[in-house]
Amino acid sequence: MPDANGAVLLVVIGTLACLLKIRSNLHSYADPTRSLVNPQLLRAADVAADAAASSQAAPPNVIFIQHESLSGSVMLNTEKGKANTPFFHERMANDPDFYAFEHHRTGSGHALDAMPSLMTGCLPYIKKGIKYSHANGKAIGYEFAEKGYATASFSSRILDEDITEGKFGVLHDLLAGGMDRVEDASVNPNLEIDINDQGTSDGQMLPLFEEWLEEFDRLKEEEGSPSKPFYAQFYNFNNHYPYLDDHSDFSRLHGDNYITSMKDTDRFLEDLFEFLSSTGRLENTIIVGSSDHGEDPFKKPLARTKVLTSHILHSVGYVYYPRHLMTHEGMEERLRRNTQMMTHTLDIFPTLLSIVHGGNVATDGEYHDHPMSDPNTAADEGCIAGIDLAAVDIPEDRVTIAMNLVSGVSRSLTLWAISTKDFTLYHRTGRTEVYPLQQGRDNDYVLEFGSCTKDVMKLCLTDLSEEKEEYFRRAITSLRSYGSSFVGESVKTSKIVRFFVNILGGESAMEQTADAMAAEYLGSKESRVAFI
Description:
Largest sheet: 8 strands, mixed
Shape: globular
Strand order of the largest sheet: 5-4-6-1-7-8-2-9
Helix content: 40-55%
Distance between the termini: 10 Å
């Protein structure tokens, strides 16, 4: 126990250290009394401590579901959305192995940006990142194939010329690369195309999946490899415009068919879980699902290709992870806690990457050799990356980025955003105004999430006020204060971050905010006690 003089000295030293840290790193905006734990150290410590418990008799089976254009705010927050997805909400409320991430964000409302980032873990923030995310061999399916998994892809969107070599040609390798078997309407004449000539019902993929598993079981028996796992991915297209329904009575204004299409999504999930359970596979299967982006059909069809809104940025994300398959202590609690934090579609790739490497990410050299395993190495490739949802404690004040670097070029359209859990600062530059959504050709807006999105006809959009300017200065302060485990160092000084700093008054205003936050931090009783 130090004497009185020693205690005073400790306070002085601690105070100086704190000032230097906050002033230079621009510390957290959400809670000035909270220090940010280095998530990489936390992850490494947890995994290393439980390495002995991580060995399994057989690797788990893995299913990855990509939901095209499924909005999290519509599905989770609106009464109609909840009423049309009873199975999902029952699992969310009552299944201890089911984790629904309630504040899931996307990097773009356009598939040309959103699908590559979901499947490769890379959202380009410079042109180098486009080259990475568009290169063949980067999709998550390749990782499972290389680890010896039997692989299959089931796409309810037909893989036609638009996908194989046309405008959306980048999607083909994401959906078919590394796969032992690919099923879609272009190769299976029995599949009925009934969605705007672009695809079939998601539900028609399940009998093909069951058939493939029967064949897989026979092959395992013939090869004498009973423990061989499978990886299956589904690209579910029913929530894409004009949605799976009777289009003769389609209401563009209210998006009735979009709401109804969620019934088919819910039915698909219920039938999938029932099949896996009835065949004894569910207990050894991890299911990961995410939409590439949301949708806002209630005010303008395909609005997401022209603007950003709360319904577009809020995606759906979930994980079914049986507790006995978890490879180290703390995973269950961390996943549950992260359901209430801000997550991103970019987090899906490293979460799957960790699963394919058996959860031993602290000691797995191959995992760490992957550039998307860490946001700082990802930044070297020109990419913004995510984190492993089962291994990292996400802070309350996480900030994420959205930008349409790929899809916006040909249309001279800039849709950039930085988001907290509750608000988004959003800039739009375009050739035309979008009147139904009250968005101009060169404007800054604030988007609101949460209770505002319960009414699908609300814009949940306001102009940038002085109060929100300070709020977002604190948000960027927090973004810059993160270690490289969340945001690559070069991303913190990237064009998009500098752009928003200028909107908020420039670096001098940022410095004033940092000084105020430092004073708040040092003025807290908890801080003074901690230093003693």
